[in-house]
Amino acid sequence: MEISSPGKNCAHYSRAKIIPIFLPNQGCPNRCIFCNQKEVTGTPLVRNPKEISPIIQQYLETILQARQRKQAGFPDRIEVAFYGGSFTGMPADVQREFLRPAGLAVQNGIIDGVRISTRPDYISKPGLQLLASFGVKTVEIGVQSLDARVLQRAGRNYSEEHVAEAMSLLHQGQFSIGLHLMVGLPEESLEGLISTVEKVIRLSPHFVRIHPTLVVKDTELERMYRQGDYTPLTLEQAVEICKGLSLRLIRSGIPVARIGLQSIPEMQKSGCIVAGPFHPALGELVASSIAYDRMQELLAKRSDQGKKVVILVPERELSIFLGQRRQNFHRLQQMGYQEICILPDKGLEPGSLRCMENPAPFISHF
User: Fold this and answer.
1) CB 17 within 8 Å of CB 238
2) Under CATH, domain 16-280 is a member of which superfamily?
3) Within 10 Å of residue 289's Cβ, how many Cβ atoms?
């Protein structure tokens, strides 16, 4: 949900309807302390490239039906995405076999592109040429942090220099680039986190995903947590940290594509998430917190606190401004705005809001 104006990289970043292909831990050189892909995806490992065409076809039937219904906000682009491992860490011939069905769909105009996820130290010029030949247009890199201590403790085993070199090659290849960041990792400090964000901004990715660290069962991080060697963020801490990072990125022109892992039933089943700030709509909590701050700033400029106030917000963002269970609305009432309304306005651009000059006739109807 947009809570700020689009930035400089938005032209290169476009939303797409994703057909996910999960290859848990494929191509990874080791298992990071926080990782258990099979638990968080809840999807069987795709072992045979012959499975990919039926998966694409199955998703396409549902996607095309939704497109025909002209659902509001439905993305124009359709992409196949290989997630869950380090795609470019697999042998080149294996990559070709997995990419071929998706590449053929791109060639025939059935889908618009392919995206893969990988590690920064597994990016090379020949490897990117291979990807491009099969219609890969977006490369997402699990950077997680640019603090050397955090990377070492997490078992990532690459350096800031690897990230910079990978970004240079990706920019040269004119790929759309997404970076994944994690907050709440062991050894993380506020100073290190701020430094990471500033470095990421200088690298100019086209979008960023932010994931608070969760303690997933059967991981090294679970062992650390059980032994008292790791304390995860609370949900409130995660919301505040993600809010700060998001605002810094957005104000620098870098869209935040997602906050938190995509919620699936397997993640909410008993025992999968051992501890940590899991919430099925974490991004909405962050957006609502930003929206609340925006409304506070708007009201602070007025001299009529306690009087009747109507705040107009974009129609599609009404739930964000109201907050979950109307939390933002109630918080504003507690500030002294007892007769306040938050109403939708079809004419407002995403992220915009304003106070109505003469709200009395509207408030009388509520």
Assistant:
1) no
2) Aldolase class I (3.20.20.70)
3) 21
